[in-house]
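New to this. Help decode the following:
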Amino acid sequence: MAVGAAVAAIALALTACSGGGATKSTTAANSGSGGGNSGYKIAMITHETPGDTFWDKIRAGAEQAAKDAGVKLTYSNDPDASKQAQLIQTAIDSKVDGIATTLVTPDALAGSVKAARAAGIPLVGFNSGIDQYKQLGALMYFGSDENLAGNTVGEKLAADGVKHPLCVIQAAGSVALEARCAGVKDKVAGTENIQVNGADDSSVVSSLQAKLAQDSSIDAIVTLGAPIAMDALKAMSQANSTAKLVTFDLNEQAAQAIKDSKIEFSVDQQPYVQGYMAVTALYLYIKNGNDIGGGGPVLTGPSIVDRNNIDKILPFAKNNTR
């Protein structure tokens, strides 16, 4: 019931305000056409690895929300936890009105989140850190329940008779990715994790190809990002693997692969919604004191995308909104 109420609150909020490498990149968007010019400055800071198409959807949603609310949005990113913390401090020093940040490495970001609170700057979490955002002091959270998402994958694989899935973690130390694999293992005890370098596609392909060639008992591969799923398809072809492939998240290529029956299904956390709601929630909090979620996380997933609904979703994936 709490989740349902939160979703209803989101719908009202939306109606009210509508009218890979590892180097840091920073861009700013100032769009005031949809909702006038509120004068608010909001910083969005993520652990994006440049080149990962997942983050294009986060940014598209955030930029649309900024346009709708007349907010000046600054986006910056760094996959290095200490550098992400520095980016949060930079936003604080710039005296922004609000901060939206991913919390993929909670311990490393705790000090900067505390500094935002001390400066009186509202901060919301999104995408990563669902189990840690409250203790860190974030006001709200928008994202998927990753344990639930992992359980969902595990249940579907178990129902298909899978015994030895390989869960591919592409970013070391990510609490969200680890939670996904743990959720799969809860339902399929034979789940094995493998760590790969998600910033290097060729390295991912070679690591997976070698693992598949070494162990023919692997009967499913679970990738935790759409670009990694495309790497896995190459590795499976090179290793002549007949394992099932499932993935988390979508991009246009992964969506087409679902339609072509190369990927069984995707667990979509709807990153466009995460970006949109993180900015929208800050705007409403600053303007009206609104608190979305009733003290709990607002879930944007998991949402299953498979051959039953891919025809409807594929155009949105191509449009970068799903």
